């Protein structure tokens, strides 16, 4: 009987506590703040319709005081009532990104929603331009997989398409997908990145994720064509298998070390990105050598190369624009895979264009 009475009292207390927390919760009119350098804008801290005054003080804290300043650092909550707003002026002092958050000494005051994510840029139009470039290169890189798929389907043959290139490509894009998904979606890894680069923006954007996952799917389709269509004696070479085996062991060891807390999980993601970068550096070599040996680019889509060249160039341009606009050059070093992917791709694309349009432009090679 005493147990039931105690349980009932506890339930009532918890219900009242929940009601109190709800009644004195605070929020803001916008969490995301974008400012131009030396610009100032007013935002609001809001009370709800059921807000109840409480003898407490709201403390407002800036993560990086050299990036922004505010006109209020504390608010006495006992002066506030329902449906009130407190203006707070945020002024941009320097380029970069910072958080403005809050706390109180009274645990009944819910301030989880009282925060601002502030980015300060040189020019707002550069943000729009950068976003536009990002989607253009995403489309160019994504569409670049289709010309090869179409050529394979039209010829009902994959002769001239190097299997080592495909094997390296699928592994590389799987690892790149893991890197992008982890750094964008996993809270613990995002926190580790923020601690390592406290003033940096997350270098992974939504279009990066779409591109990487789409690349895995289309490369898998191309590999399926290699099973279905004429391929002569082509196969994955022993050299490529050894290289992929070495990468597999390296990734497996990295997973074990991360699981045992020897290294951070963000380091594991970086190792995945480094393997992807290495693969990007070497994956074109087998195809380039095959073209040289055959003295032909027959079976290898130049449309793929032209679109890949466009995507790689725009990818690097976007990163440079963002770094300049936010004075955040660490974002390039924070995501060396993305910048290196564009750089190496462009270099090899130029080489392939020379092969196709200059060295072997008159070749009519056909496999016997």
From TrEMBL:
Q: How does it sit in the membrane?
A: Multi-pass membrane protein
A GO MF term? L-cystine transmembrane transporter activity
Membrane-crossing segments per the record = 134-153, 165-186, 206-228, 240-257, 263-282, 302-321, 341-360
Localisation per UniProt entry: Lysosome membrane
Catalysed reaction, written as an equation? L-cystine(out) + H(+)(out) = L-cystine(in) + H(+)(in)
What residue range is the signal peptide?
A: 1-22
The answer to whether UniProt assigns keyword Thylakoid to this entry is no
Q: What keywords are annotated for this sequence in UniProt? A: Lysosome, Membrane, Repeat, Signal, Symport, Transmembrane, Transmembrane helix, Transport
Q: Which family does it belong to?
A: Belongs to the cystinosin family.
Question: Which PANTHER family does the record associate with it?
Answer: CYSTINOSIN
Q: What is this protein called?
A: Cystinosin
């Amino acid at each position: 009987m005493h147990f039931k009475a105690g349980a009932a009292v506890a339930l009532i207390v918890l219900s009242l506590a929940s009601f109190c927390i709800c009644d004195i919760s605070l929020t803001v009119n916008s969490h995301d703040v974008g400012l131009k350098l030396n610009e100032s804008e007013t935002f609001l801290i809001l009370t709800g319709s059921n807000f109840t005054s409480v003898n407490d003080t709201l403390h407002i804290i800036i993560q990086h005081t050299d990036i922004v300043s505010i006109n209020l650092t504390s608010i006495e909550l006992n002066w506030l009532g329902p449906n009130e707003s407190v203006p707070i002026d945020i002024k941009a002092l320097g380029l970069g990104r910072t958080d403005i958050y809050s706390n109180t000494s009274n645990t009944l005051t819910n301030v989880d929603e009282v925060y601002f994510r502030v980015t300060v840029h040189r020019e707002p139009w550069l943000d729009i331009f950068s976003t536009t470039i990002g989607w253009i290169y995403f489309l160019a890189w994504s569409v670049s997989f289709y010309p090869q798929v179409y050529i394979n389907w039209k010829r009902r043959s994959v002769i001239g398409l190097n299997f080592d290139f495909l094997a390296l490509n699928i592994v590389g894009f799987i690892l790149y997908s893991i890197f992008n998904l982890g750094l964008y979606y996993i809270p613990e890894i995002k926190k580790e990145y923020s601690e390592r680069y406290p003033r940096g923006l997350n270098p992974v954007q939504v279009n990066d994720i779409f591109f990487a996952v789409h690349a895995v799917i289309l490369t898998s389709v191309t590999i399926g064509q290699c099973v279905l269509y004429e391929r002569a004696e082509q196969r994955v070479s022993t050299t490529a298998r050894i290289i992929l085996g070495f990468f597999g062991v390296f990734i497996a060891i990295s997973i074990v070390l991360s699981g045992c807390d020897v290294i951070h999980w963000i380091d594991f993601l970086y190792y995945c990105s480094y393997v992807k970068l290495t693969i990007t550096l070497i994956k074109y070599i087998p195809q380039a050598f095959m073209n040289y040996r055959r003295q032909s680019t027959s079976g290898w889509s130049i449309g793929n190369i032209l679109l890949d060249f466009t995507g790689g160039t725009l990818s690097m341009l976007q990163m440079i624009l963002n770094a300049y606009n936010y004075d955040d050059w660490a974002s390039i070093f924070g995501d060396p895979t993305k910048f290196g992917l564009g750089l190496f791709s462009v270099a090899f694309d130029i080489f392939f264009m020379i092969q196709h349009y200059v060295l072997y432009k008159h070749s009519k090679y056909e496999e016997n």
